[in-house]
Structure prediction request, 393 residues.
Amino acid sequence: MHNHGYEKNKNFYNNFINLQRSALMESFITFFTYFLLLNTMIPISLIVTIEIIKMIQGFFIEWDTKLYSKFRHVFCRARAVSINEELGNVNFIFSDKTGTLTLNQLKFKFCIINKKCYEHVLDINFTKSFSLKQETKILESLSFVDEIIPFHENYFCNAVIEKRKYIKENKHKKSMKQNLKEMEENIYIIDEFWKAITLTNECMVSEEEGELKYLGTSPDDNELVKTANKQGYKLFKTSINKKQVLIGDEEYTFEILHVLGFSSERKRMSIIIRDGNKIKIYSKGADIEITKRLSLKSKKSEKFEFVSRELDNFSKMGYRTLMVASRIIKESDYYSWINNIRKSEKYQKNSIILEKLYDIIECNFELLGGTVLEDKLQHKVPETITSLKLADI
Prediction:
């Protein structure tokens, strides 16, 4: 009876049950319509399941023996398991160098002064401590240098004192006039170079158990001052307006007139001091920045060609290199410059104007030489980079 009513009024009922297709097709569509209506509920349960899976994966990461560090005696720690699926999607790793890839424990290795390259050795009998294989390897890697002169403790200070004594004894000999002049120029540059290293820093000095300790913000500065100390140029007292240096057995007090601090934009540091009756500016920094500020005469000299070439070669080998320069400033030039600096600092505090004023005084430098520092790589850095490359990173 009911079926007959349905057949008779089929069009009326179809508006409600919508059986336009076969019962099987309608069942299939209805199931997935219901599935769609529950779409807000299903992911919530899925998220809970995925989080549990990620947590279990975290345990597997921590148990992985291949991720064990023998150096630190620790297993890998999965502190955030929310990024497990992203580990395989890493294509690039951005890293700084200092303290991440390198140990940030600098060692003074070489210095270039007046067309000569010097190597810093801790032991006077250094040749005995090297094996022949090591020595050959070092010489091959430094094939760009014609001659390397080893230097040890107090080498430069003693050389300057001895040569000055020799000049004094022979200054009346006419036949040696030219040789003595060259020698005098050479020891002046050596003396100025080590003075620049000793003074162009912001290290504080302290004495512990009779030994001078240097504490500065830059490890480069600390190492350079320590090396200068061992070369007989001992910075033993610093204050806001004075630096006291012991050169050999003689004590010198340098009055600090102005410090042009180091910054990542400037890539250099300069200090203006009064040395006796002369006003001098010493500067050390990146070779590009110092080269820009050298005098035309200095840029055209053989010394500049030699120093820039050697520093370039050392930097290609992964060493940290710095150029050192200085010049004597006229009293009138300094006082007019410092008045402009005071006006700028007082009224405008404009870094662009200050930078222009710094450029006025940091110019016409005479090149003294360059320093080469080594910052060793952290443990297994090459192997790590190889592994990352194998992982398509």
Observations:
- The longest helix spans residues 41-63.
- DSSP finds 15 helices and twelve strands in the chain.
- Residues 14 and 389 are 65 Å apart (CA to CA).
